[in-house]
């Protein structure tokens, strides 16, 4: 009996390894994440809903100033929502918390919905993949400054963020509308 239980446990571990999320390429730099996305925004989660069979979660968000790469041909939806799978096997975004400001990075699906997943997140400082959306105010200062001052670009001629450091005055001016509520 004990051997049977151990064999079942081993089989479950092997099966879960094959069913786990598989990303074709996760960004290793903030620039790669920015350029791989269809849209990037700083947003606070204010509500969440699930679809009927609980395979998708819709986060209702309040945009907080930053909104990049939005196609000019699209109107900004209201209410603003982003969708993710609830399954880690489908690379779903782990639980985002209400009231927290995140840097959300995503794509549009075939229906035009804004999608987030664990394959497209801002990488950690060491370049390793982050398993979840980054809380905006915990991002490295240089990344926040580059976002606030719109220093990321995806032109072929300019493949990296502008290296020049932002002045304190530039950052103060840019953050006047994006600081968290007290």
TrEMBL record:
<keyword id="KW-0732">Signal</keyword>
<dbReference type="GO" id="GO:0046872">
    <property type="term" value="F:metal ion binding"/>
</dbReference>
<feature type="disulfide bond">
    <location>
        <begin position="21"/>
        <end position="91"/>
    </location>
</feature>
<feature type="disulfide bond">
    <location>
        <begin position="23"/>
        <end position="119"/>
    </location>
</feature>
<dbReference type="GO" id="GO:0031012">
    <property type="term" value="C:extracellular matrix"/>
</dbReference>
<keyword id="KW-1015">Disulfide bond</keyword>
<dbReference type="InterPro" id="IPR001134">
    <property type="entry name" value="Netrin_domain"/>
</dbReference>
<dbReference type="InterPro" id="IPR008993">
    <property type="entry name" value="TIMP-like_OB-fold"/>
</dbReference>
<dbReference type="GO" id="GO:0008191">
    <property type="term" value="F:metalloendopeptidase inhibitor activity"/>
</dbReference>
<dbReference type="GO" id="GO:0051045">
    <property type="term" value="P:negative regulation of membrane protein ectodomain proteolysis"/>
</dbReference>
<dbReference type="GO" id="GO:0005615">
    <property type="term" value="C:extracellular space"/>
</dbReference>
<keyword id="KW-0479">Metal-binding</keyword>
<feature type="region of interest" description="Disordered">
    <location>
        <begin position="163"/>
        <end position="182"/>
    </location>
</feature>
<keyword id="KW-0964">Secreted</keyword>
<feature type="compositionally biased region" description="Polar residues">
    <location>
        <begin position="173"/>
        <end position="182"/>
    </location>
</feature>
<dbReference type="Pfam" id="PF00965">
    <property type="entry name" value="TIMP"/>
</dbReference>
<dbReference type="InterPro" id="IPR001820">
    <property type="entry name" value="TIMP"/>
</dbReference>
<keyword id="KW-0862">Zinc</keyword>
<feature type="domain" description="NTR">
    <location>
        <begin position="21"/>
        <end position="154"/>
    </location>
</feature>
<protein>
    <submittedName>
        <fullName>NTR domain-containing protein</fullName>
    </submittedName>
</protein>
<dbReference type="GO" id="GO:0002020">
    <property type="term" value="F:protease binding"/>
</dbReference>
<feature type="binding site">
    <location>
        <position position="21"/>
    </location>
    <ligand>
        <name>Zn(2+)</name>
    </ligand>
</feature>
<feature type="signal peptide">
    <location>
        <begin position="1"/>
        <end position="19"/>
    </location>
</feature>
């Amino acid at each position: 009996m004990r051997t049977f239980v151990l064999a079942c446990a081993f089989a479950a571990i092997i099966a879960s390894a094959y069913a786990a999320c598989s990303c074709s390429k996760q960004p290793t730099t903030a620039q790669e994440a920015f350029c791989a996305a269809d849209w990037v925004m700083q947003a606070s989660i204010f509500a969440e809903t699930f679809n009927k069979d609980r395979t998708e979660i819709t986060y209702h968000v309040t945009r907080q100033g930053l909104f990049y790469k939005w196609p000019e041909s699209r109107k900004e939806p209201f209410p603003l929502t982003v969708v993710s799978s609830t399954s880690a096997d489908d690379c779903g975004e782990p639980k985002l918390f209400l009231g927290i400001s995140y840097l959300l990075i995503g794509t549009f699906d075939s229906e035009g919905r804004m999608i987030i997943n664990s394959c497209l997140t801002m990488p950690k400082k060491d370049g390793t993949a982050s398993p979840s959306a980054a809380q905006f105010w915990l991002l490295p200062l240089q990344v926040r400054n580059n976002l606030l001052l719109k220093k990321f670009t995806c032109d072929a001629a300019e493949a990296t963020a502008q290296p020049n450091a932002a002045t304190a005055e530039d950052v103060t001016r840019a953050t006047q509308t994006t600081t968290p509520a007290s």
